[in-house]
Request: fold
Amino acid sequence: MRGLAVLALVLVFAGAAVAAQPQKITIKEKGKGYDVDISYPRLGHAAMDRQIEVWVRGIARDFVGIAHDEPGAANPWAVEVSYEIMRADAQMVVVSFVNYNYTGGAHPNASSETFNFLLPDGRRVEFAEVFTAKGVQRVSDIAIARLKQDLGGPDGMGDMDWIKRGAGPNARNFASFALLPRELVITFDAYQVAAYAAGPQEVRIPLAHLRDVMRPDPRAPAASFDCRNARSEVERAICSSHGLATLDRHLGEAYAAKFDWEDDATKRQAIRDKQRTWIKARDAVCRGVAIVACLTGMYQRRLKELGD
Reply:
């Protein structure tokens, strides 16, 4: 990355699944009106390190690009990324990041990003690959009840509609999750379930309450529907490809989010109608051709249409 200095420091960490002494890598740059201070671990596992590095350097590159385009800001812009290794054992490595950034405006913002890696291959898993649809619903029910308790009351900051949308049964609401040996930890960023002043929220759920709704194989393709019930040529093709199943799941989540956050009844109906039209077109266009390639292109274009 042009202009960014990378400093390697040793962080002593006894983790059976990673290097005995993972490195703490720091990206620092001070420019005209902006400051970059990013830290991330180099775990000594090629696949995990590659995924983390791509994400981190994307954060730095995008921020510096914006900062260069906005010279002379009244207050210096800043991005600061810190991390915590929440789990490192023979089954998984979990690394949690907090991305603090200020790009003008009334206040800074912070977002979370968590990497849940399966071992030994270092594959990153998403929430809906770990939990079934019933699991997503159960986590949602528990989270909403906890958030209502924490944010509610006469002097609380909670709005039930806001909580129900931000913690509703859509796996993307739980994207920032940490799967620990005995509990599931979910972070909700500021604005997701309450106003900025309430700050980020955290919900912890013992895994004993969720074992029966965890998928037996998180590496198996996880579409927006249960692949055991795949009947049509298109459904079977989706379930035959991990990448295509992921696209199908992401599309379902994006559509549900767009629909749920729209209050206007006419616009909601339009969103539903357009999705139904697209599904019919998908099934017609991709029948009898190089189906995986055809479906992949259609899903990618549809995700762009939904702004995902």
